[in-house]
Amino acid sequence: MTGAPPAQRQWVTPTYYAQKLLGQLGRGIALATDASYQGANRDVFAQVFEDDERYRIFLLNTNATSSRAQNIYLGAANQASGLIVAYVLTGTGANPMEATNECQYGIGVPEPEASLYLYDGNYFSWGLPPASLTVLDIPLNRPAENRPCLAGVVQSTRCGRALVDVEVQAAPSGGPVTTVRTNAFGLYEFAGLAPGEYTITAVTPGHIPLPGSAPVTVDADELLALHFPSVARLQGHVRLANDDNARGAVVWTTQGDRTVTDCEGEFELPVAPGVYTLRAYVPGITGVIQAVPVDLTELGSAACFTFTLSNNPAERSAVTCQ
Q: Which of 96, 161, 255, 308 is close enough to 131 for a disulfide, judged by CB 3.0 to 4.6 Å?
């Protein structure tokens, strides 16, 4: 690859994340569409999907400033059985859920956040943040032996992105290793593990190898939550000379790895060990490309850089960051 910047990728929008939730979780039979009235306002809309002995309930709070509580009844014949996963997409700014480019008008919409809850029953109330889309993934009538006993999320530390299709291993003190993979939101689940001690390891290519957990005790009657924060081998921040965050800046290596900065100017590049030239460029703001060599050949090595870009050569820099 030459020193020319790669083609700019346009920023995704809040609609992108809503479509990701719908594409991954809005499967099966659509059971109901409902609107709840909070005072004079029609704030909360609900859509339920039934898919493979589970309900996936989409709850949209259209009120930009106030939280709402939604009562949920699963039916007399159904019981939530164990782990409920809540995926929450929230917006900020003056028009928080509009399909506008993320970094315009002060809008910065992060990826949906997955949270884990234990619940057995068929009636409960769920809180909905302002300007949010919440998706509840609820397994129904699951036998005890098929309920998750260990679950968690694997995500990057700097930008909080979910790491998808990561291999997570549960190794007992003796016996075969059990392996699962994270879903589209970085979530993994183990079910059917025999009670005992396990070392849990997440294999995250392009990131610093994560050490296995200290031995954890798995109990068939309890859910153990274990999350893995992961550090990309290349990461950092791009800013302009006036200290503004460089939103949507292109960051890439001469080997072809590339990304764009988020609304805070942060970036992560998961790369294999090796020697790289890291470059940063801000389309439409400055034609200057700043480059820095990086040696990541040592096992467990990583690098973090802060780029300052400007048309004035005296103001350009690339320095290591914390």
A: 96
Q: Are 304 and 322 in contact (CB under 8 A)?
A: yes
Nearest CA-CA partner of 58 in 75, 76, 42, 70:
70
Instruction: Report which of 283, 83, 252 is spatially closest to residue 183, judged by C-alpha positions.
Output: 83
CA 313 – CA 292 distance, rounded (Å): 15
pLDDT value at 166 more than 90: yes
Nearest CA-CA partner of 257 in 274, 240, 237: 274
Place of tokens 């479509």: 19
Does 103 score more than 90 pLDDT? Answer: no
201, two tokens: 């390891």
Instruction: Tell me what the pLDDT averaged over the chain comes to.
Output: 81
The full DSSP string for 241-281 is TTS-B-TT-EEEETTS-EEE--TTSEEEE---SSEEEEEEE
Mean pLDDT of 230-238: 91
Structural domains for the chain: 1-142 (2.60.40.1180), 144-231 (2.60.40.1120), 234-320 (2.60.40.1120)
**pTM listed for this prediction:** 0.77
- Looking at residue 135, its pLDDT comes to 92
